[in-house]
Amino acid sequence: MSTGVFRRVERATPPLAALAVAVVAVSTSAILVRYSSAPSLVKAFYRVLFTTLLLVPFALVRHRDAFGRLSVRDWFVAIAGGVALAIHFASWFESLEYTSVAASVTIVQSQVLFVAAGAALLLAEHVTRRTLAGMVVALCGIAVMSVGDALTGANVAGAAPLYGNALALVGAVCSAGYVLTGRSLRQRIPLVPYVIVVYSVCAVVLLGLTVADGAALVDYPAREWLLFVGMAVGPGLFGHTVLNWALAHVESSVVSVSLLGEPIGSALLALVLLGEVPTTITVVGGAVVLVGIAVTSRARAS
User: Fold this and answer.
1) SS3 sequence of 63-85
2) Which tens digit of pLDDT belongs to each residue from 145-176?
Protein backbone atom coordinates (compact mmCIF):
# COMPACT_ATOMS: atom_id res chain seq x y z
CA MET A 1 0.00 0.00 0.00
CA SER A 2 1.47 3.39 -1.03
CA THR A 3 2.03 6.43 1.15
CA GLY A 4 -0.70 8.27 -0.76
CA VAL A 5 -3.25 5.60 0.11
CA PHE A 6 -2.31 5.84 3.81
CA ARG A 7 -2.81 9.59 3.74
CA ARG A 8 -6.19 9.31 2.02
CA VAL A 9 -7.35 6.78 4.60
CA GLU A 10 -6.21 9.07 7.43
CA ARG A 11 -8.01 12.08 5.96
CA ALA A 12 -11.21 10.07 5.46
CA THR A 13 -11.27 8.71 9.02
CA PRO A 14 -13.30 10.81 11.50
CA PRO A 15 -11.08 11.14 14.61
CA LEU A 16 -13.97 10.71 17.06
CA ALA A 17 -15.13 7.56 15.25
CA ALA A 18 -11.59 6.20 15.41
CA LEU A 19 -11.49 7.07 19.11
CA ALA A 20 -14.72 5.16 19.74
CA VAL A 21 -13.36 2.10 17.92
CA ALA A 22 -10.14 2.31 19.95
CA VAL A 23 -11.97 2.42 23.29
CA VAL A 24 -14.06 -0.61 22.34
CA ALA A 25 -10.90 -2.43 21.21
CA VAL A 26 -8.95 -1.79 24.42
CA SER A 27 -11.99 -2.86 26.45
CA THR A 28 -11.62 -6.38 25.06
CA SER A 29 -8.05 -6.79 26.32
CA ALA A 30 -8.84 -8.09 29.81
CA ILE A 31 -11.47 -10.48 28.42
CA LEU A 32 -9.06 -11.97 25.87
CA VAL A 33 -6.43 -12.37 28.60
CA ARG A 34 -8.96 -14.17 30.80
CA TYR A 35 -10.06 -16.46 27.95
CA SER A 36 -6.48 -17.64 27.42
CA SER A 37 -5.15 -20.39 29.66
CA ALA A 38 -1.51 -19.75 28.72
CA PRO A 39 0.89 -18.34 31.35
CA SER A 40 0.62 -14.58 31.82
CA LEU A 41 4.14 -13.89 30.52
CA VAL A 42 3.49 -15.92 27.39
CA LYS A 43 0.29 -13.99 26.68
CA ALA A 44 2.04 -10.66 27.18
CA PHE A 45 4.99 -11.68 24.99
CA TYR A 46 2.92 -12.80 22.02
CA ARG A 47 0.60 -9.80 22.23
CA VAL A 48 3.56 -7.42 21.94
CA LEU A 49 5.42 -9.54 19.38
CA PHE A 50 2.43 -9.88 17.03
CA THR A 51 1.52 -6.19 17.39
CA THR A 52 5.07 -5.28 16.40
CA LEU A 53 5.02 -7.58 13.38
CA LEU A 54 1.72 -6.06 12.23
CA LEU A 55 3.22 -2.57 12.34
CA VAL A 56 6.49 -3.35 10.56
CA PRO A 57 5.03 -2.96 7.01
CA PHE A 58 3.70 0.52 7.90
CA ALA A 59 7.15 1.55 9.11
CA LEU A 60 8.89 0.22 6.01
CA VAL A 61 6.50 2.03 3.68
CA ARG A 62 6.29 5.39 5.41
CA HIS A 63 9.18 5.76 7.85
CA ARG A 64 12.06 3.69 6.55
CA ASP A 65 14.65 6.41 7.23
CA ALA A 66 13.44 7.32 10.72
CA PHE A 67 15.38 4.59 12.52
CA GLY A 68 18.75 5.82 11.25
CA ARG A 69 18.13 9.24 12.74
CA LEU A 70 17.90 7.94 16.30
CA SER A 71 20.67 9.21 18.57
CA VAL A 72 22.31 7.32 21.43
CA ARG A 73 20.05 9.20 23.86
CA ASP A 74 16.99 8.23 21.80
CA TRP A 75 17.93 4.57 22.01
CA PHE A 76 18.44 4.88 25.76
CA VAL A 77 15.00 6.44 26.17
CA ALA A 78 13.44 3.78 23.94
CA ILE A 79 15.06 0.96 25.90
CA ALA A 80 13.87 2.45 29.20
CA GLY A 81 10.36 2.81 27.80
CA GLY A 82 10.36 -0.74 26.48
CA VAL A 83 11.47 -2.16 29.83
CA ALA A 84 8.77 -0.17 31.64
CA LEU A 85 6.15 -1.37 29.15
CA ALA A 86 7.26 -4.99 29.61
CA ILE A 87 6.87 -4.77 33.38
CA HIS A 88 3.48 -3.11 32.86
CA PHE A 89 2.21 -5.96 30.69
CA ALA A 90 3.72 -8.66 32.91
CA SER A 91 2.22 -7.28 36.12
CA TRP A 92 -1.16 -6.34 34.66
CA PHE A 93 -1.71 -9.65 32.86
CA GLU A 94 -0.79 -11.45 36.08
CA SER A 95 -3.17 -9.27 38.10
CA LEU A 96 -6.09 -10.58 36.05
CA GLU A 97 -5.33 -14.05 37.45
CA TYR A 98 -5.98 -12.86 41.00
CA THR A 99 -8.58 -10.06 40.99
CA SER A 100 -11.71 -9.04 39.12
CA VAL A 101 -11.61 -7.53 35.64
CA ALA A 102 -13.39 -4.41 36.92
CA ALA A 103 -10.85 -3.79 39.69
CA SER A 104 -7.76 -4.61 37.61
CA VAL A 105 -8.68 -2.48 34.59
CA THR A 106 -9.79 0.48 36.70
CA ILE A 107 -6.65 0.49 38.84
CA VAL A 108 -4.31 0.15 35.85
CA GLN A 109 -6.00 3.19 34.28
CA SER A 110 -4.76 5.24 37.23
CA GLN A 111 -1.53 5.60 35.26
CA VAL A 112 -2.80 9.11 34.46
CA LEU A 113 -2.14 10.04 38.10
CA PHE A 114 1.42 8.74 38.05
CA VAL A 115 2.09 10.52 34.76
CA ALA A 116 1.03 13.76 36.45
CA ALA A 117 3.20 13.05 39.48
CA GLY A 118 6.18 12.00 37.38
CA ALA A 119 5.88 15.05 35.14
CA ALA A 120 5.99 17.27 38.22
CA LEU A 121 8.99 15.50 39.75
CA LEU A 122 11.04 14.73 36.64
CA LEU A 123 9.95 17.32 34.09
CA ALA A 124 9.27 20.24 36.46
CA GLU A 125 5.68 20.55 35.25
CA HIS A 126 3.41 22.62 37.45
CA VAL A 127 0.80 20.72 39.48
CA THR A 128 -2.38 22.71 40.07
CA ARG A 129 -4.65 22.31 43.06
CA ARG A 130 -7.26 20.78 40.79
CA THR A 131 -4.78 18.19 39.52
CA LEU A 132 -3.74 17.35 43.07
CA ALA A 133 -7.37 17.07 44.15
CA GLY A 134 -8.12 14.67 41.31
CA MET A 135 -5.13 12.53 42.22
CA VAL A 136 -6.19 12.35 45.88
CA VAL A 137 -9.76 11.41 44.93
CA ALA A 138 -8.58 8.65 42.59
CA LEU A 139 -6.13 7.24 45.12
CA CYS A 140 -8.91 7.13 47.71
CA GLY A 141 -11.00 5.17 45.24
CA ILE A 142 -8.14 2.72 44.68
CA ALA A 143 -7.84 2.24 48.44
CA VAL A 144 -11.57 1.53 48.69
CA MET A 145 -11.41 -1.00 45.84
CA SER A 146 -8.33 -2.70 47.25
CA VAL A 147 -9.27 -3.19 50.89
CA GLY A 148 -12.98 -2.47 51.12
CA ASP A 149 -14.17 -5.94 50.16
CA ALA A 150 -11.59 -7.57 52.41
CA LEU A 151 -12.78 -5.51 55.39
CA THR A 152 -16.45 -6.27 54.76
CA GLY A 153 -15.88 -9.95 53.98
CA ALA A 154 -17.76 -9.73 50.68
CA ASN A 155 -17.37 -12.50 48.10
CA VAL A 156 -15.16 -11.18 45.33
CA ALA A 157 -13.86 -12.51 42.02
CA GLY A 158 -10.28 -13.70 41.98
CA ALA A 159 -8.11 -15.93 44.12
CA ALA A 160 -6.26 -13.07 45.89
CA PRO A 161 -7.88 -9.70 45.15
CA LEU A 162 -5.51 -7.62 47.29
CA TYR A 163 -2.47 -9.13 45.58
CA GLY A 164 -4.07 -8.76 42.15
CA ASN A 165 -4.92 -5.11 42.82
CA ALA A 166 -1.33 -4.48 43.94
CA LEU A 167 -0.06 -5.97 40.67
CA ALA A 168 -2.45 -3.74 38.72
CA LEU A 169 -1.07 -0.74 40.61
CA VAL A 170 2.47 -1.76 39.63
CA GLY A 171 1.23 -1.98 36.07
CA ALA A 172 -0.16 1.56 36.31
CA VAL A 173 3.15 2.95 37.64
CA CYS A 174 5.14 1.23 34.88
CA SER A 175 2.68 2.40 32.23
CA ALA A 176 3.25 5.95 33.45
CA GLY A 177 7.00 5.39 33.23
CA TYR A 178 6.56 4.24 29.63
CA VAL A 179 4.63 7.41 28.79
CA LEU A 180 7.11 9.73 30.52
CA THR A 181 10.25 8.18 29.02
CA GLY A 182 8.70 8.28 25.56
CA ARG A 183 7.73 11.95 25.54
CA SER A 184 11.00 13.35 24.25
CA LEU A 185 11.38 10.53 21.71
CA ARG A 186 7.89 11.08 20.26
CA GLN A 187 8.73 14.72 19.68
CA ARG A 188 11.43 13.73 17.18
CA ILE A 189 10.19 10.62 15.39
CA PRO A 190 6.76 9.53 14.11
CA LEU A 191 4.44 7.20 15.98
CA VAL A 192 5.02 3.92 14.13
CA PRO A 193 8.85 3.88 14.27
CA TYR A 194 8.63 4.88 17.92
CA VAL A 195 6.29 2.06 18.91
CA ILE A 196 8.22 -0.50 16.87
CA VAL A 197 11.44 0.31 18.71
CA VAL A 198 9.75 0.33 22.12
CA TYR A 199 7.61 -2.75 21.40
CA SER A 200 10.69 -4.65 20.18
CA VAL A 201 12.56 -3.91 23.41
CA CYS A 202 9.44 -4.84 25.37
CA ALA A 203 9.14 -8.15 23.50
CA VAL A 204 12.80 -9.03 24.17
CA VAL A 205 12.38 -8.32 27.90
CA LEU A 206 9.18 -10.37 28.05
CA LEU A 207 10.87 -13.19 26.17
CA GLY A 208 13.70 -13.19 28.71
CA LEU A 209 11.25 -13.22 31.61
CA THR A 210 9.27 -16.06 30.00
CA VAL A 211 12.37 -18.20 29.47
CA ALA A 212 13.58 -17.47 33.00
CA ASP A 213 10.18 -18.50 34.35
CA GLY A 214 10.39 -21.79 32.46
CA ALA A 215 7.12 -21.27 30.60
CA ALA A 216 6.65 -23.03 27.27
CA LEU A 217 6.73 -20.82 24.17
CA VAL A 218 5.17 -23.32 21.79
CA ASP A 219 2.90 -26.37 21.83
CA TYR A 220 -0.27 -24.37 22.43
CA PRO A 221 -3.57 -25.31 20.77
CA ALA A 222 -4.94 -23.28 17.86
CA ARG A 223 -7.40 -21.53 20.18
CA GLU A 224 -4.54 -19.99 22.16
CA TRP A 225 -2.77 -18.73 19.05
CA LEU A 226 -6.00 -17.11 17.87
CA LEU A 227 -6.29 -15.39 21.24
CA PHE A 228 -2.68 -14.15 21.01
CA VAL A 229 -3.39 -12.70 17.56
CA GLY A 230 -6.67 -11.26 18.83
CA MET A 231 -4.83 -9.42 21.62
CA ALA A 232 -2.45 -7.94 19.06
CA VAL A 233 -5.05 -6.94 16.46
CA GLY A 234 -7.75 -5.70 18.85
CA PRO A 235 -6.24 -3.99 21.92
CA GLY A 236 -2.80 -3.62 20.32
CA LEU A 237 -3.41 -2.36 16.77
CA PHE A 238 -6.96 -1.01 16.79
CA GLY A 239 -6.73 0.00 20.46
CA HIS A 240 -3.59 1.72 21.69
CA THR A 241 -2.09 2.44 18.26
CA VAL A 242 -5.27 4.15 17.06
CA LEU A 243 -5.45 6.08 20.35
CA ASN A 244 -1.96 7.39 19.72
CA TRP A 245 -2.99 8.36 16.18
CA ALA A 246 -6.03 10.20 17.55
CA LEU A 247 -3.80 12.37 19.72
CA ALA A 248 -2.71 14.19 16.56
CA HIS A 249 -6.30 15.08 15.68
CA VAL A 250 -8.20 15.70 18.94
CA GLU A 251 -7.33 17.27 22.28
CA SER A 252 -5.36 15.12 24.71
CA SER A 253 -8.04 15.74 27.34
CA VAL A 254 -10.63 14.12 25.06
CA VAL A 255 -8.43 11.06 24.58
CA SER A 256 -7.63 10.81 28.29
CA VAL A 257 -11.26 11.07 29.37
CA SER A 258 -12.39 8.68 26.63
CA LEU A 259 -10.11 6.03 28.14
CA LEU A 260 -12.38 6.04 31.16
CA GLY A 261 -14.68 4.01 28.98
CA GLU A 262 -12.26 1.07 29.12
CA PRO A 263 -12.99 0.01 32.72
CA ILE A 264 -16.72 0.38 32.09
CA GLY A 265 -16.59 -1.57 28.83
CA SER A 266 -14.37 -4.27 30.31
CA ALA A 267 -16.60 -4.65 33.37
CA LEU A 268 -19.70 -4.99 31.18
CA LEU A 269 -18.00 -7.55 28.94
CA ALA A 270 -16.84 -9.49 32.01
CA LEU A 271 -20.41 -9.48 33.31
CA VAL A 272 -21.86 -10.76 30.04
CA LEU A 273 -19.11 -13.11 28.86
CA LEU A 274 -17.53 -14.28 32.12
CA GLY A 275 -20.48 -13.98 34.51
CA GLU A 276 -18.29 -11.83 36.75
CA VAL A 277 -20.45 -9.57 38.93
CA PRO A 278 -18.49 -6.76 40.64
CA THR A 279 -19.27 -6.10 44.29
CA THR A 280 -20.92 -2.88 45.43
CA ILE A 281 -17.64 -1.67 46.93
CA THR A 282 -15.80 -2.34 43.66
CA VAL A 283 -18.41 -0.35 41.74
CA VAL A 284 -18.34 2.56 44.21
CA GLY A 285 -14.55 2.60 44.46
CA GLY A 286 -14.22 2.33 40.68
CA ALA A 287 -16.58 5.26 40.18
CA VAL A 288 -14.48 7.36 42.59
CA VAL A 289 -11.29 6.40 40.70
CA LEU A 290 -12.82 7.37 37.36
CA VAL A 291 -13.97 10.74 38.72
CA GLY A 292 -10.46 11.40 40.05
CA ILE A 293 -8.86 10.43 36.74
CA ALA A 294 -11.29 12.66 34.81
CA VAL A 295 -10.54 15.64 37.06
CA THR A 296 -6.78 15.05 36.80
CA SER A 297 -6.88 14.66 32.99
CA ARG A 298 -8.91 17.81 32.41
CA ALA A 299 -6.82 19.83 34.85
CA ARG A 300 -3.56 18.81 33.16
CA ALA A 301 -4.98 19.51 29.69
CA SER A 302 -6.14 22.99 30.68
Assistant:
1) CCCCHHHCCHHHHHHHHHHHHHH
2) 766 655 555 555 567 878 888 999 999 999 88
